[in-house]
Design a protein that fits this description.
By secondary structure, the protein is mostly helical. The protein contains 24 helices and seven strands. 62% of the residues lie in helices and 5% in strands. The strands form two sheets. Strands 4-3-5-7-6 form a five-stranded mixed beta sheet. Helix 4 packs parallel to helix 7.
């Protein structure tokens, strides 16, 4: 096996390790993962693959591509939990290979950068965590890379096939999460005159006219792909659904982004932890310092088209994301490949021999995190009834502790070692956190109970806003009526054979539930209507 074969095998091994541990140790996380599986499941049950639904109502928050991919696996393998959880990791793996392809287009004469870039990406704790979550953003990251690859092909070869690839990326990106994909692709496309320092476009006859005509054509292709679904979906979903996907979930989110509101600087504060562990690697900082100094000599880093390309992709998208008040950590995922590419190029051009003390910051960080985490676990600081500091559970600390101490013994460390340590750390975190997550975030038990009530012909109502967390895991085929503390009594009298799902801050308040368990920071229970009607004064309902 040649060097490239060994490197690819190592990348695949890291990916397989991360995915396997997540599937084995972590339950589906409410409310996002369980909600998206609920939408896919409801589309499957309704046999309506055009308009997504959640709890019987049209679901306008996301386009259908992720749901279609989940259902495709169900059509092949049967309905199961593991396939939907593999969709995002598969696209995460695709990102690794796409980063290599983009890197080769940016710097065809620098194979070292193409070697390091995928390690920097998969070795990041932020990226490796979200790789295993059943969410939309890893798909958006993959389609962003496809779009950037198309741009670079159009730049280097001047071929229309590159623009066709950009159009395809925009179209499937719209089908994944709406027009937000344009935020990640358009900066590099629009600012090509700034990053094209070699005048690869400007030296051609009418080069820039052809460039922007190609960009316009790709946007038309992308919008057409999106409308191929949106047009029929709006017609089938009705006026309210059409208004929601045309305005509320696009421009409306920017103009009135009330959910997840954060200040302008929030992403800047999030970036340092998102770049762990690489931000603590002294070799990277020495390379960055070398790049900065090179501005003043013949090796002018500012003339590097690839570096400028990555800077545009990262900084402009970050600025626009910061201007929108609604912010979530995973919105950063599609720009992380640009950061990995930039760091890989800097390391390849300006990297210096490693020093023994390079491992010290990483080792200190890892050991500190393990000590703090072990203390919190053993002392039950994760909340009531989560003190699970058993010897077996804390043994997950040992592999990472051994790895951190091993680093201190190495004469120098490189990206493969750090990426491997990051993977081991993520495995240990899953192992340590598994008991807590099973106790506070797993809803398989109550979902199965609710499903058994529905299949027995009993009507089950839900207290407050319902995010679909029980629909797929319980294989529910009917919507859950929504009630609250004020409307519950009337519903109970109209449905004396039914049951109620209610949430409480404390366990065992009032009437004992037929089924009771932890749900995140609260407790959730199912009460038979006849039991509540018999002793209404004992039923405690938290507002």
């Amino acid at each position: 096996m040649n060097n490239w074969g060994r490197r690819l095998a190592f990348l695949l091994a890291l990916w397989l390790l991360l995915v396997s541990v997540a599937l084995l140790f972590r339950p589906l996380m409410p409310v996002d993962e369980t909600r998206y599986l609920a939408v896919a499941w409801e589309m499957w049950v309704r046999e309506d693959f055009l308009v997504p639904h959640l709890n019987g109502a049209p679901y306008s928050h996301k386009p259908p591509l992720l749901f279609w991919l989940m259902q495709t696996g169900w059509g092949i393998f049967g309905v199961n939990e593991w396939w939907p959880r593999l969709v995002s990791p598969v696209f995460g793996l695709a990102c690794i290979f796409l980063v290599i392809a983009v890197c080769r287009q940016l710097w065809p004469n620098d194979p070292g950068a193409a070697t390091v870039a995928p390690l920097l990406l998969i070795g990041g704790l932020f990226w490796s965590l979200y790789t295993t979550l059943a969410m939309f953003d890893m798909l958006v990251a993959a389609f962003t890379l496809v779009g950037l690859l198309g741009l670079l092909r159009a730049w280097r070869q001047g071929e229309w096939s590159g623009w066709a690839l950009v159009g395809l990326a925009i179209g499937v990106g719209i089908l994944t999460k709406g027009p937000v994909v344009l935020l990640y692709i358009m900066p590099a496309a629009l600012l090509a005159p700034w990053w094209d320092t070699g005048k690869a476009i400007g030296n051609r006859i009418n080069g820039w006219v052809r460039w922007y005509l190609g960009l316009a054509a790709s946007i038309v292709i992308g919008v057409a792909i999106g409308l191929a679904w949106a047009g029929p979906a709006m017609n089938a979903g009705g006026e309210d659904y059409a208004n929601a996907i045309l305005w509320d979930q696009t421009a409306g989110r920017i103009a009135n982004a009330s959910d997840h509101g954060q200040p302008f600087w929030w992403y800047l504060a999030l970036l340092p932890p998102a770049l762990l562990p690489w931000i603590l690697w002294p070799a990277l900082w020495r390379a960055a310092n070398g790049a900065w100094r090179a501005r003043y000599d013949d090796d002018d880093v500012t003339a590097d088209s690839g570096i400028r390309f990555c800077l545009v992709c990262f900084t402009l998208a970050l600025m626009v994301l910061s201007l929108v008040s609604s912010k979530q950590p995973h919105y950063l995922l599609p720009i992380m490949p640009a950061v990995a590419l930039l760091a890989a190029r800097v390391l390849s051009r300006f990297g210096q021999p490693g020093l023994r003390w390079d491992a010290a910051p990483l080792s200190v960080l890892v050991i500190a995190l393990l000590v703090i985490g072990a203390y919190l676990i053993a002392s039950g600081q994760f909340g009531p009834q989560t003190s699970f500091g058993s010897v077996v559970n804390l043994l997950w600390v040992l592999p990472v502790l051994a790895g951190a101490l091993w680093l201190l013994c190495l004469p120098k460390i490189g990206p493969p070692v750090i990426a491997g340590l990051s993977a081991v750390l993520m495995v240990s975190v899953h192992g340590i956190a598994r008991p807590a997550l099973e106790q506070t975030h797993s809803v398989s038990g109550i979902a199965a109970y609710i499903g058994s009530l529905q299949r027995a012909g009993r009507l089950v109502a839900h207290d407050g806003k319902y995010h679909g967390q029980y629909h797929f895991l319980g294989r529910l085929e009917k919507p859950l009526p929504i009630v609250d503390c004020d409307t519950a009594p009337d519903w109970l009298h109209r449905n004396p054979e039914g049951a109620l799902i209610f949430y409480r801050r404390r366990p065992n308040d009032g009437i004992k539930a037929d089924y009771d368990q932890r749900f995140r920071a609260k407790y959730v229970g199912v009460w038979s209507a006849d039991k509540v009607l018999a002793h209404p004064e004992q039923f405690v309902c938290d507002q």
